Amino acid sequence: MTTAAPRHGADNGASDKVGSAMRIIVHNTKCQGHARCSAQAPEIFKLDDEGYILPGDIEITAGEQLLALQGAQSCPERALEVDRTPAAQREPDSVERGPDELKSTSVNVAARWPG
Amino acid sequence: MPVSRVPDHVPREMVRDFSLFTSPGMQRTPNGDPHAAVACVHSGPPIFYSPYNTQDGLGTWVITRAADQRRVLQDAENFSSHRKLFSAALDESWPTIPLELDPPAHGVFRSLLNPLLSPKRVAELEPAVRERAVLLIDRIAASGSSCDVTKDFAFPFAVSISLRFLGLPDDRLDTFVRWGQELLHGDRPERSAAARTIVDFIDELTALRRKEPVDDFISFIVQAELEGRRLTDEEVRGIGVLVFVAGLDSVAAAIGFDLAYLARNPEDQELLRSEPERIALAAEELLRAYPPIQMLRVARKDIDFEGAPIRKGDYVSCATMIANRDPAEFECPNTVDLARENNRHAAFGYGPHRCIGSHLARREIVIALEEWLARIPAFRIKKGTSPITYGGHVFGIENLVLDWS
Ligand code: HEM
Ligand code: SF4
After folding, report:
1. pLDDT tens per residue, range A94-113
2. Under an 8 A CB cutoff, do B341 and A70 touch?
3. Interchain proximity A113–B114, CB inside 8 Å
4. What InterPro entries does the record point to (chain B) (predicted)?
5. Ligand showing the shortest atom-to-Cα distance for residue B319
6. Which of A3, A35, B355, B378 is most exposed, with the fewest beta carbons within 10 Å of its own?
7. In angstroms, what is the span from residue A42 Cα to ligand 2's centroid?
8. Closest ligand to residue A44's CA
9. Alpha carbon of B123 to those of B107, B244, B362: distances in Å?
């Protein structure tokens, strides 16, 4: 199960500034391959060959925010968490992980079937 | 109420006279609305005990809230799927696969089967699905201005797609549909006979494909390697029987309920006909409002759940038609709103057993509605006829005679 704490940013308006876009935290162990996220926004939510979301959090640019939000909110398993903390305020390691690097991560099938 | 069937550990005040099989509106009912009938549970407690709530008349706990159903269905460690519903009809005990396996064994088989029904694969099947829909609807349109849409379209369409997926010819379609009906809705002897017939059929097919593989589903299964070995006959049977049965009536039931709704709501019908780009979203709302399936789990240990003393071995029912009418999850749950957004309904279940056919089923439903509305003018329920609905393990609708004269 997930260990990441919810990180919804304080509603101070900072997240609306260009360049401080949001991030989608992907809880892979919860993903069951409904593919509703990618039906909303295939460019943002990429699936593997079995139809489950690729691992790794997804950085969202300012222009994609609405689409990303809709995609995250369409997940029946609640596997996609919206993180509005401005990038500058997050722990450094999570900021450095760019989307391209994440796409090449191989799929950890075992992680989906705990126990 | 037959209180005698209630196990001793169930507090009497948690027993309710409610059943997806025997409550009012669950038996064959002209002009019925079984989904609305079950929505009444939301005025009661989040969990209660129903003394008669399976095909065999066993008692189950009933989980009413969508959020609680998610908890149960996502938690295979406490709530097992290993209940052998199919083989019990034969007094045998092999599981259907992956439906009645728990993780981690479940995941191994899911990974084998997932690519065959992934969104990508389904996109490739789309032209064949559409061609089938167009052929059937054109034939109906050419032959008059009325038809029994379940018999003439929903079943032949859904079952032929399923047969094509399995690599079976269409010529025995009517026979297969009858087997499915007897299995899901027959009395105990009928069900046993149907189950035996289906098992023998899949076993025979398996033997044939082992000898001489062709390009079809069973051949894929018998040739597949799993953890360095071939599948056993019993495993092939568990998969073959399930995929055969799963495609027989769920999609047909969904299409039937959808067209019944549109026949009774001409404004929504016209909206989708004139703006077909709305159909995909509308189909989700219709899946929310009219889902066909009740899921069952078996408690693996004693669990206290929302004040209910669930004991090891108890059945726990998660009915999608109940979750989908939960007011805590859906605003105005009993109103059909074809433009509803963020529609995270439970029609295909939650957790590791999420319907593996969901991507195919969605495409079938959307294509059926698109092609039907494009080819059939304003339709209504034929005067003097009444569609028959029924509840149970899989809800359904029959005798849906549409008229567009
Ligand atoms: C509208 C149509 C359909 C609905 C509403 C539906 C619903 C469901 C539900 C609720 C489950 C979960 C059962 C559970 O957790 O106990 C399920 C599982 C399953 N469905 Fe469907 N289904 C539909 C169509 C199909 C089709 C067309 C196929 C075949 C290609 C299919 C194959 C399966 C299989 C194999 C499973 C077992 C998955 C597993 O246990 O991992 N379904 N379905
Ligand atoms: S909608 Fe949720 S469960 Fe489905 S693929 Fe996307 S993340 Fe996974």
Report:
1. 443 334 333 333 333 333 32
2. yes
3. no
4. Cyt_P450 (IPR001128), Cyt_P450_B (IPR002397), Cyt_P450_CS (IPR017972), Cyt_P450_sf (IPR036396)
5. 1
6. A3
7. 12
8. 2
9. 24, 21, 11
| ipTM confidence score | 0.90
Q: Which domain holds residue A64?
A: 22-95
How many domains would you assign to chain A? 1
pLDDT in tens, B166-206: 888 888 888 998 898 888 888 889 989 999 999 999 999 99
* d(CA A101, nearest CA chain B) in Å: 23
Ordered alpha helix ranges (H), B98-216: 105-113, 119-142, 149, 155-166, 173-185, 188-211
- Measured distance CA(A67)–CA(A50) in Å, rounded: 23
User: Looking at the domain assignment, is residue A110 inside a domain?
Assistant: no
Q: Mutate which of B101, B202, B250, B284 to test ligand 1's pocket (most atoms within 8 Å of Cβ)?
A: B250
What's the pLDDT at A15? 41
In a domain, A101, yes or no: no
Give the rounded percent of residues in chain A with a pLDDT score beyond 90: 53
Residue A8 predicted with pLDDT over 70: no
Residue A115 lies in a domain: no
Q: How confident is the model at residue A88 (pLDDT cuts 50, 70, 90)?
A: low
Residues of B in contact with A70 (CB under 8 A): 341-342
- Show the DSSP H helices in chain A as ranges: 36-40, 65-73, 92-96, 99-103, 109-112
User: In the prediction, which pLDDT does B277 show?
Assistant: 98
* Chain B residues within 8 A of A80 when measuring between CB atoms: none
Atom of ligand 1 nearest to the CA of B362: 1
Q: How much distance in Å is there from the Cα of B343 to the middle of ligand 2?
A: 13
- Count CA atoms closer than 13 A to B26's CA, side-chain side: 19
Supply the CATH number for residue A73's domain.
3.30.70.20
Give how far Cα B175 sits from Cα of B137, B169, B186, B400, Å: 21, 12, 15, 21
* Cross-chain CB nearest to A38 (options B74, B103, B119): B119
Nearest one of B375, B185, B361 to B287, comparing CA atoms: B361
pLDDT band at A14 (very low <50, low <70, confident <90, very high): very low
Domains of chain B: 3-400 (1.10.630.10)
Mean pLDDT per segment of 10 residues, for chain B of length 405 residues? 74 96 94 96 97 92 98 97 86 93 96 96 95 97 96 93 88 88 85 92 94 92 93 94 89 97 98 98 98 96 97 98 98 97 95 97 98 98 97 94 97
State mean pLDDT over A6-25: 52
Q: Which atom of ligand 1 is found nearest the CA of B110?
A: 41
Q: Ligand 1, atom 25: nearest CA belongs to which residue?
A: B357
With CA atoms as reference, report the closest residue to B295 among B126, B73, B117.
B73
Question: What is the predicted pLDDT for the residue at A86?
Answer: 73
Q: Whose CA is nearest to atom 4 of ligand 2?
A: A34
Q: Which atom of ligand 1 is the closest one to the Cα of B99?
A: 40
Q: How far apart are CA B264 and CA B387, in angstroms?
A: 11
